[in-house]
Structures are given as C-alpha cells and as structure tokens.
C-alpha cells in the first residue's frame, strides 16, 4: 500500500523473476495506474508460491474513485482470501524518500494502513522507502531518520514491531524485502478479524471509523466554506442592489426634472389665438412722435420672440410677419412724410414766410 505515485507497481515488477509476464502498468505521473486490487503470482526457486497484491491508494486520482470504494476493494479481497489455502505473511507500505515533507494525503494513507493492519500485524509490516535515485545519500539518510523518529509518521509502527528497508529500483533490493517477509509467521489483519470474527459492518471497523471521521471533517470544512460563500454572495447582492437603487433614483430624478421643465413650457409663449386682422391705408396721416416710439418697440418685440414663435407657433409667426412688414412700410412712409414737413417748416421759417406758430 501507499500513496499514488510512490512506486508500488514498480516494486512488484522488480520483485518478479525476469521473463515473468504481468499486466501491471507502471505510472510515470501523479495519475493512478492501479484501477483495482491486482494479485501477481510466481513460483520461487524453492517452489514457494508467492503472491504480491497491488492496491489503489486512498488518494486515487481517477475521477469517481472514492476512498470508500478503495477500502471496500481491499476488505473484500482480504476476507475472500482468508483461510483459502493462503497465508498472509507480510504487508508492505511504500513511501517516497524524495518528498521534502509528508502532506495530509500521505498521512491519511498511513493512518488507514495502520487501521487495516492493527497492532498485532505490525511485526509483519515493512516500510519501504523509494526514489533514492532522486536524492543524495546524505539527504536521504537525514530524511530517513526524521521519518523513523516522528510520532506522526513511522515511529509508532516501528515501535510496534515493523521494520524499515530501502528499494533502490533494483531486483536485489526488492528481493531482499520479499525474503524478509517470507520468514515471518502468517498474520490476520485487523479488518479481516473485525469483519469475519467480530461480525462488524465495514463502517464499524477501525478503518471504516477512521474513514468516516475523515469524511465528517471534510463535510464540516466544506459546510463552513459554503456558509462563507453564502455570506459573501449576500453581501455582494446587497451591494449590487444598493448600486442599482442609487442608479434608478438618479434616473427618476432626471426624468422628474424633465417632466417639470416640460410642464413649465416656453417662457413668454404666445397663446395660439388667431391674429387680428389689420387694415393699413396707404394715405393715413403721419403719426405723432409717441406713436412712432410705440411702433418701434412693437417691431423690436416681434424680432426678439421670432425664434420662439418659429418653433412653437409657426402659423402665427407667418401671419404676424407678413402683417408686420406691411405695418412697418406704412410707418416708414409716415416717418418720411413727417420728416419732409418738418424740413419744409424750417425752410419757410428761415425765409420769413411762415410764423413761428405754424
């Protein structure tokens, strides 16, 4: 057993005699190549039947493969083989010596391995370190000592009777592990004893309880993450609603202002009443000075409001414009006539032909 990518399949291939046929695949990435429990058998030189069993890790990288499924596969295989003319003499746990730290996944695999084996089977356990070609001798030895002395890692297993050995990608180092375990007395793993002898359910076994605890921890973690996400979404929604409300209020204020301006209308707008009909005679008498001033003011007023009238009352402007021109012409003729009379008076007065009272 061991985490994905530690070299389980590679160890089995190195353990087998040269020329042996097998369908085991060796992975070269973090993707699991072991899809199920795979027993590999061969006969040793002395006729001993040897069977190595490759198992998926409890961190299987394949989509849809859960730790519960992996535990079921291992438990099913062990219970079926128990007492069927086969003896379990050893359990091998593999670990990469090249790992600079032992992460949560590797620690979870190790805890599951301990729960599967139980304390009575630790004397049949070998912890095999792999990937020695990826570290220097000094670096590898230092990490090996750290693993052996850590209470969270291999020290409890070693104190219970397990041993630690190296696999250096050679047939010799793999054979050394096999020969060591063949000298051990057979053992019954804790999960087999719990399922067959104590008649526990898989959930009630030590391995099942450990896995259940892991699942509950993950559930609490994800529930907390979901609650945090809900809170964040509510805050974002409230902020978004506040922004939308402010934007809508601004739009409404603008529309109300435009509506108010529309109700006010155009300053000084002329009512849409029909203009009166004026008749101008070509021979009326000259107006006095006060009348001329009033006419001039009227003409300026019409000129001032010409643009407003053009956009709102074009019909009124057309009628007023034509009549204003006629009226202005009459005023202009009257002014010229008055000016000629005034000049004539001054001339006659100068000649003494008229009295000052004229």
UniProtKB/TrEMBL annotation:
Highest taxon above the source species: Eukaryota
Any coiled-coil regions, as ranges: 212-265
InterPro entries: P-loop_NTPase (IPR027417)
Keywords: Coiled coil
Name of the protein in question: G domain-containing protein
Organism: Scleroderma citrinum Foug A
